[in-house]
């Protein structure tokens, strides 16, 4: 049954060489990317790889992931069986059969059963692709070809062993139930004289499928079979949304305007995409008809790399523009549609980092081309000139506190800095939240102070919008101010300030203990420092909307929920998309300051989801969410529902009994 | 041929307060900006450079710190920046200001022909709208004010055709070059500086001219050359406002209340 070992050696060597050449050709393109260290902290990286790749943690986060789990582990185990198969093709006496039967026989049983599982899982996957594809266009010919190849490979496995068993040549037949069944079928259908022919036919079919499959992988989305595991190992250990700093010196380039300006890891990402579409299903832009599709972005980067990479290696210049229209390019509109909500990254099973890539392209557009949506011109000028998005005179920053006695922060005298933020200081609705926060802090006897007129925007929006030059100035100034004042502990009530002070300013050497109002109030409640009267909170049925920058980007999920529970006596209602799967309000990533021209509005999508719960109150923890939800409620004329920040609900409960 | 943009560095007026004792503007710690109308003048000079090959030059008169405004102009792409700064230029009204600027433009004309001088229609700190026309008169240039569109520039015939935005109507005007054009905001959408340009501008040369370069009679410039002066600045008295209703808790009721009050005060009719 087995072929001439020499003949097969030649075939095997040739196909492995071709495979190695294909992989090298593709993966060497990654080297045109810029430097980045993804090999620090090995223990943590190994742990990530273990849980995310081998544990399939993210894969299993969606119901259909179980099917992939089965295929993944079947492949892992069958890698052993297939290795054995290839070795025996060149050395028939070698291989696993040399193991003592006590090990070998159970192994055969495992291979047999796992092959059946893989066969079933590939059929299930194919059916799903037809009946309920995850996204439009998911049922590609390539996908079916791969699934078909997997199924055939398994069938060939059973055919091969079945023919051996039928011929009575397999001493361990009792350990191979599925193959034995195949053997019975074969003996029923075929004349015994055909068994050797069948056996070698199946052997060759198996060999050809296996080697063909391996050689096809580098040219398909199934490249992820090889790249996904290392990609999980190389996942960003920092907050990927706190994009790296830039050096502002003449002669430097700013942002990413061509594929070779990405880091090698960005490029490796593009080879790791499984095209599962989870990012796109979670993306607020893609699901509301914007030009952006995170899966499409990653795919375009790969196309661009494949088209330009070899040219760049040879002559340093590509032909396909990175930002533009057409195959292999990312449309500028798409780049601007991102809310930097991070839903794509949270959904991606192989830890691809979409958001930083989009911000890098924004940096190029803003810093090198000065090409951005019209609305942003005034916004950028306001930020630079008056350090707040609205362009209101900085002198008015402390006006919110005119009715209360807010102290200025003084190290040694005040313990916490309450960083009010631009919305909290200038937006009339958000000022209510600021005042509520002040009442809570006072009620709990917290020692707090403010920066007053000296406070400046944290720079979140400019950074996410790619105006790193202006962000850099703002950050430098703020960091200097914080250092000068000896500020170490900060309370924020805007998740954008929170995330920026906490994660981004670290890059400037400022290590602050930044506490979100959700966590801070939660702590006060736990310590018994706040006495709340449930009867007077009057929030009714409360549904909680997660802010992306508090939740996904900083993993504060439970604190706001505990606060609501404490303030109302009842846990909040959960939206279908909650916690790490929460749907953005539409205002992050600087989208707050831009028009939403295409498709349907993101805030309406979210508010409809909330209204389906019939809430009296939509509870938020972010001033942007507040604006977006209130606007959407007005649009839906939902007069019976109001939007409250968690701080407002708590502050209501501070009132004495009425 | 020069396309000159005259720009003025002004205090960011939204942040300016009036000192009630001295009746002057409190400028301490107030950031400066390029007069918003002048930003459009600057933009237009850059477009002239790109479309017609003019040499774009930004010109400003002011204290040494007005360099910042000129650096911004350089970051936006002007080829050259000239600051007119001298103690004896200080305290100028619109007449003596236009004397100095006109002299500087005349000096520039010795180097290269001056085609168009762009000015903002007025500044937000002085609000006179006189300096642009003053320059035109002193130089004998065509005077085109309140321009919201450049229709055509013809080098051979040395002519320019523009659209003026007037109250309730437009006027298409043709004139000979050189011309002085004061611009309104509708003229163009200003650009944003790229980072490489900003970095380059940060160390670029800003030419500074004082009176030894212009040789003007000291009686025609600065405070001495100014027949007008500001005797007092004050904010108009305004009655204390009143907060009515509860806009957050009861927006509908509050809006109704407001409308009723406005009708009662005869400020709104049904
Ligand atoms: S960050 Fe949000 S908006 Fe941007 S691509 Fe990802 S999911 Fe879409
Ligand atoms: S980027 Fe990640 S989530 Fe999106 S399609 Fe690719 S593998 Fe799936």
Which class of secondary structure composition applies to the elements of chain B?
A: alpha/beta
CATH fold-level topology of the largest domain in chain B: Rossmann fold
**Mean pLDDT reading of chain A:** 90
Domain count of chain B? 2
**End-to-end gap of chain A:** 91 Å
Specify the number of helices of chain A: 26
Q: What is the radius of gyration of chain A computed over CA atoms, rounded to a whole number of angstroms?
A: 30 Å
N- to C-terminal distance of chain B: 60 Å
Topology, number of strands of chain B: 13
The named CATH superfamily of the largest domain in chain B? HUPs
Shape of chain A: elongated
Summarize the main sheet of chain B.
9 strands, mixed
Name the structural class of chain A.
mainly alpha
List the quaternary state of the chains.
heterodimer
The H-and-E topology of chain B, N to C, reads as EEEEEHEHEHEHEEEEHEHH
Kindly report the average pLDDT value of chain B.
89
What is the CATH top level name of the largest domain in chain B? Alpha Beta
Q: Strands across the major sheet of chain A, in which order?
A: 2-1-3-4
The fraction of residues in strands of chain A falls at: under 5%
Q: Rg of chain B to the nearest angstrom?
A: 22 Å
Range of helix content of chain B: 25-40%
Description of the molecule:
The complex is a heterodimer of chains A (658) and B (270). Chain A has three domains: 229 residues, Fumarate Reductase Cytochrome B subunit, CATH 1.20.950; 111 residues, Alpha-helical ferredoxin (Fumarate Reductase Iron-sulfur Protein, Chain B, domain 2); 276 residues, no CATH class. Helices cover 53% and strands 4% of the residues of chain A. Chain A is built from 26 helices and eight strands. In chain A, the strands form two sheets. In chain A, strands 2-1-3-4 form a four-stranded parallel beta sheet. Chain A has a four-stranded parallel beta sheet with strand order 6-5-7-8, sandwiched between helices. In chain A, helix 20 links the parallel strand 3 and strand 4. In chain A, helix 17 crosses helix 26. The model of chain A has no long low-confidence stretch (mean pLDDT 90). Chain B is globular, with a radius of gyration of 22 Å. Chain B is of the alpha/beta class. Chain B is 30% helix and 27% strand. The N and C termini of chain B lie far apart (60 Å). Chain B has a nine-stranded mixed beta sheet with strand order 11-10-9-12-8-1-6-7-13, sandwiched between helices. A two-stranded antiparallel ribbon of chain B has the order 2-5. A two-stranded antiparallel ribbon of chain B has the order 3-4. The model of chain B has no long low-confidence stretch (mean pLDDT 89). Chain B contains seven helices and 13 strands. The complex binds iron/sulfur cluster (SF4) (2 copies). One iron/sulfur cluster binds next to helix 10 and helix 11 of chain A. The site of one iron/sulfur cluster has 15 residues of chain A, from helix 10 and helix 11.
């Amino acid at each position: 049954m087995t072929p001439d070992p020499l003949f097969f050696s030649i075939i095997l060597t040739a196909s492995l060489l071709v495979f190695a050449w294909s992989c090298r050709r593709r993966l060497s393109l990654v080297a045109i990317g810029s430097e980045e260290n993804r090999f620090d902290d090995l223990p943590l990286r190994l742990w990530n790889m273990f849980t995310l790749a081998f544990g399939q943690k993210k894969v299993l986060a969606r119901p259909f992931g179980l099917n992939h789990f089965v295929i993944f582990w079947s492949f892992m185990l069958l890698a052993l069986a297939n290795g054995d198969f290839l070795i025996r093709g060149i050395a028939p006496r070698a291989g696993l059969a040399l193991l003592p039967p006590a090990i070998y026989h159970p192994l055969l049983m495992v291979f047999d059963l796992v092959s059946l599982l893989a066969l079933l899982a590939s059929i299930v996957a194919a059916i799903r692709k037809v009946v309920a594809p995850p996204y439009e266009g998911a049922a590609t010919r390539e996908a079916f070809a791969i699934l078909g190849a997997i199924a055939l490979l398994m069938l060939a496995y059973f055919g091969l062993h079945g023919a051996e068993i039928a011929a009575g040549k397999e001493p361990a037949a009792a350990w191979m139930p599925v193959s034995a069944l195949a053997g019975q079928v074969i003996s029923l259908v075929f004349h015994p004289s055909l068994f050797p022919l069948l056996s070698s036919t199946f052997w060759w079919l198996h060999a050809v499928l296996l080697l063909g499959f391996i050689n096809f992988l580098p040219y398909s989305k199934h490249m992820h079979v090889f790249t996904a595991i290392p990609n999980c190992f190389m996942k960003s250990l920092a907050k990927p949304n706190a994009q790296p700093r830039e050096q502002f010196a003449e002669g430097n380039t700013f942002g990413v305007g061509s594929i070779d300006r990405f880091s090698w890891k960005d490029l490796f990402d593009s080879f790791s995409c499984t095209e599962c579409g989870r990012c796109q299903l979670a993306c607020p832009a893609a699901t509301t008809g914007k030009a952006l599709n995170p899966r499409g972005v990653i795919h375009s980067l790969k196309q661009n790399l494949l088209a330009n990479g070899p040219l760049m290696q040879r002559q340093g210049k590509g032909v396909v523009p990175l930002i533009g229209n057409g195959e292999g390019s990312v449309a500028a509109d798409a780049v601007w549609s991102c809310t930097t909500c991070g839903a794509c990254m949270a959904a991606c099973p192989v830890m691809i980092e979409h958001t930083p890539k989009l911000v890098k392209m924004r940096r190029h557009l803003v810093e090198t081309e000065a090409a951005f949506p019209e609305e942003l011109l005034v916004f950028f000028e306001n930020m630079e000139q008056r350090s707040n998005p609205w362009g209101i005179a900085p002198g008015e920053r402390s006006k919110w506190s005119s009715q209360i006695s807010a102290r200025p922060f003084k190290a040694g005298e005040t313990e916490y800095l309450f960083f009010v933020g631009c919305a909290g200081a200038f937006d009339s609705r958000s000022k209510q939240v600021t005042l509520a926060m002040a009442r809570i802090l006072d009620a709990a006897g917290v020692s707090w102070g403010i920066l007053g007129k000296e406070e400046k925007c944290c720079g979140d929006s400019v950074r996410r919008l790619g105006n790193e030059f202006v962000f850099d100035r703002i950050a430098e100034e703020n960091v200097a101010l914080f250092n000068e004042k000896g500020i170490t502990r900060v309370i924020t009530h805007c998740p954008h300030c929170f995330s920026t002070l906490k994660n981004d300013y670290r890059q400037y050497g400022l290590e602050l203990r930044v506490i979100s109002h959700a966590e801070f109030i939660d702590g006060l409640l736990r310590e018994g420092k706040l006495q709340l009267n449930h009867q007077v909170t009057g929030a009714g049925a409360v549904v909680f909307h997660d802010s992306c920058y508090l939740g996904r980007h900083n993993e504060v999920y439970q604190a706001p929920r505990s606060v609501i529970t404490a303030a109302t006596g009842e846990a909040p209602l959960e939206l279908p998309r909650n916690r790490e799967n929460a749907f953005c309000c539409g205002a992050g990533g600087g989208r707050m300051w831009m028009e939403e021209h295409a498709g349907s509005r993101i805030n309406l999508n979210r508010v409809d989801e909330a209204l389906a719960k019939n809430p009296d109150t939509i509870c938020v923890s972010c001033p942007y969410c507040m604006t977006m939800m209130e606007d959407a409620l007005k649009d839906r004329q939902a007069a019976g529902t109001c939007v409250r920040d968690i701080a407002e609900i708590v502050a209501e409960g501070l009132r004495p009994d009425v | 041929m020069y396309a000159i943009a005259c720009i003025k560095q002004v205090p960011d007026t939204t942040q300016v307060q009036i000192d009630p004792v001295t009746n002057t503007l409190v400028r301490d710690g107030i950031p400066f900006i390029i007069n918003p109308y002048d930003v459009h003048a600057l933009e237009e000079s850059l477009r002239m450079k790109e479309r017609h090959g003019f040499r774009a030059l930004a010109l400003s008169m002011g204290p040494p710190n007005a360099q910042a405004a000129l650096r911004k102009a350089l970051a936006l792409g002007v080829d050259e920046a000239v600051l007119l700064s001298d103690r004896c230029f200080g305290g100028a009204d619109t007449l003596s200001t236009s004397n100095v600027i006109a002299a500087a433009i005349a000096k520039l004309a010795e180097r290269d022909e001056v085609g168009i001088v762009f000015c903002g229609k007025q500044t937000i700190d002085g609000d006179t709208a006189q300096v642009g026309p003053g320059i035109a008169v002193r130089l004998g240039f065509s005077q085109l004010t309140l321009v919201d569109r450049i229709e055509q520039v013809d080098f051979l015939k040395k002519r320019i055709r523009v659209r003026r935005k007037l109250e309730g109507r437009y006027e298409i005007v043709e004139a000979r070059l050189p011309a002085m054009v004061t611009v309104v905001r509708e003229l163009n959408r200003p650009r944003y500086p790229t980072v490489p340009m900003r970095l380059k501008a940060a160390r670029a040369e800003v030419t500074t001219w004082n009176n030894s370069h212009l040789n003007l009679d000291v009686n025609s410039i600065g405070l001495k050359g100014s027949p007008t002066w500001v005797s007092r600045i004050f904010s108009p008295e305004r009655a204390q406002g009143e907060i009515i209703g509860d806009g957050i808790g009861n927006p509908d009721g509050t809006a109704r209340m407001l409308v009723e009050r406005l009708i009662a005060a005869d400020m709104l009719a049904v």
